Amino acid sequence: MIYKAKIWIRAARLRTLPLSLSGIIVGNAMSIKEPNFSWVLFVFMLLTATGFQIISNFANDYGDGVKGTDNDNRLGPKRVLQSGLLSKEELKQGIFLSSLVSFVLALFSIIYAFGIDSWLYIFLFISFTFLSIWAAIRYTVGEAAYGYQGFGDLFVFLFFGGLSVMGSYFIQVKSLDVKVGVLAIAIGLLAVGVLNLNNMRDLGSDRLVGKRTFAVFLGQKKAKTYHITILIFSYILLLTVFVPTKEPIHWLPLLVVFPLFTHLIRVIKTKAPIAFDPELKKLALTTFLLSILIFITALSGL
Predict the structure, then answer these.
(1) Structural domain span for residue 131
(2) How many domains does one find in the chain?
(3) How far apart are CA 46 and CA 50, in angstroms?
């Protein structure tokens, strides 16, 4: 029983969870000084985002395993289906149960936020919920999996940035804000950077099995340039939000320039694809750190 639980925890890929929570933290940070801010909603949004990420991880393990993408040529960590630790049927059940739990968590958040009379908002956010579950699964599952057609970067940008940041802010405040939109773009670009590192690491094996990620389209050299560009642009957006403020405490999120700069230097120097893997973890944790720093800054009255 304990051994099986460890396998499911491995399939859930806990190291991916901080990145999935970053947008939720930022969206709630920007609304925390609002008089009707709800900590209950904040917690349930974090739980829902965790659920969506676990769906994606189970589905990714299943989809890449069935297609043969996870094979001995792949440089990343061994997956549970690839290793024979879980069967296809077990992973299907995991996808279904995690989807069900995530839907219930999202539904509670929606009803709690809007009541039972705001049918337009309820319909809109339930639609976003179904879309999120669909996107989590269809990244690698099915003949038309969009992750195999070069659209993974776009979907990560939209869901980890736009929907995560702006959606969570709207649930709390019931309105939108330009500054929040800028932060949504910045967080979305950093999340795309994490995916791009993953795809640069797996570029060779992905190309062999016909998985056409954006990194495969670009090639290693151009994928590096793309990576550098989106991270620099993300930091410029952060500057536009935090530099104009008068209090030095509000510049706290800009401290991520140090790990980001170090990261970019290492990416530029990296030649062996496997060396992208530790940088993937570092960028994901840097993005999470940024969200925490923004949260601390917001508590001080940003």
Answers:
(1) 2-299
(2) 1
(3) 6
With tokens 């969570």, the residue in question is 168
First to last CA, the chain: 48
Backbone angles phi, psi at 210, to 5 degrees: 85, 20
> Is-contact 253 191, C-beta < 8 A?
no
Cβ burial of 111 (10 Å; 0-12, 13-18, 19+) is middle
Tell me the pLDDT tens digit for each residue of 182-230.
999 999 999 999 999 999 998 888 888 888 899 999 999 999 999 999 9
> What is the reported pTM?
0.93
Q: How far apart are CA 59 and CA 37, in angstroms?
A: 34
**38 burial via Cβ count (<10 Å: 0-12, 13-18, 19+):** middle
Q: What is the CA radius of gyration of the chain?
A: 19
Please tell me the distance from the alpha carbon of residue 44 to that of residue 21, in angstroms, as a whole number: 11
Gap between the Cα atoms of 202 and 233, Å rounded: 25
What's the CA angle centered on 281, arms 251 and 65, to 5 degrees?
140
